[in-house]
Amino acid sequence: MDQDENPASGFVVYEDEAKTKPIEFPKEWDLKDFAGKDDWIPENLYIEADTNFIASAIAPRATKLVATLESAKGSMKEEIGLLGCDIAVDANRDGVIKFAGTRGDPELADKEADRTERGNPFRFWVNDDQDDKDISETIPASFPDFADNKIKKIRDMEDFARLNIFVGSLHKKVRDGRIQIGLKWKDADGSSPAIKIWQNKSPQGGDEYLKEENAAKNHLGQTVLGCVQGTNACLIRTPFGNSRD
């Protein structure tokens, strides 16, 4: 249900961990229907965001899953808040990132939504060069930039790519450090990818770090927030400084 107690979309709930048995809502289970049978009401439910819905939502809404148990002795109700999240890169390289977090921005009304797929991935630089000079770099690299955890020269910024995350109504709690965001790899096909996460300190949270010298200089001396590698979640350190971080 949404915040107005109306049926809501945006999430798919399954009876099984393999996600082969989706549940259509509203759903009712009557204990009498299970009498004398081997199966039973699902002990666990598995919830997954409908990424197509989240990415196309005009105004993402707070959603909750409501479970009610009714018996001759009364009723009991439990509610679970569900958060529509989204994550995106500048997949079409038009200089802006349009996804659930910016869907209502009038300045992006004529822009194409940024979506990546397995057959159409987003590719960006491996930061294995050595940008230790202002207008050139050391070739061959004896100490590649990815090996340290600092941004030493503005030239290093050209190897960075933006990653925007939308967490809806929880943004302030994330910014204040009351909730942490974790990232991890999924379906890596046996490879061992790794990316380091940094704060984008561009004034508007965009690609100014590539186009404006002062914006690039804002990143000098910054230390890495975390490294996403392996199968474990990497918690990204917060708080950040403003609502665009």
Question: Could you describe the 3D structure shown?
Answer:
The chain has 245 residues and is mainly beta. The chain folds into two domains: 11-82, no CATH class; 85-245, no CATH class. The chain contains four helices and ten strands, in the order E-E-H-E-E-E-E-H-E-E-H-H-E-E. The protein has helices at residues 51-56, 171-175, 208-211, 213-217; strands spanning 11-14, 46-49, 63-71, 74-82, 86-88, 164-166, 181-183, 194-197, 226-229, 234-236. The strands form five sheets. Strands 1-2 form a two-stranded antiparallel ribbon. A two-stranded antiparallel ribbon has the order 3-4. A hairpin with a 2-residue loop joins strand 3 (63-71) and strand 4. The longest helix is centred in the N-terminal third of the chain and has 6 residues, at 51-56. It is elongated and about 75 Å long. The two termini are 30 Å apart. Residues 54-60 and 241-245 have low confidence and may be disordered.
How many E-type strands?
A: 10
Give the biggest beta sheet: 2 strands, antiparallel
Please state the structural category.
mainly beta
Estimate the mean pLDDT confidence: 80
- Low-confidence region ranges: 54-60, 241-245
Measured between the Cα atoms of the first and last residue, the distance is 30 Å
How big is the Rg?
Answer: 23 Å
- The SSE order reads EEHEEEEHEEHHEE
Number of domains: 2
Q: Give the count of helical stretches.
A: 4
Side by side, the strands of the main sheet go 1-2
> Percentage of helical residues?
under 10%
Specify the overall morphology.
Answer: elongated
Strand content: 15-25%
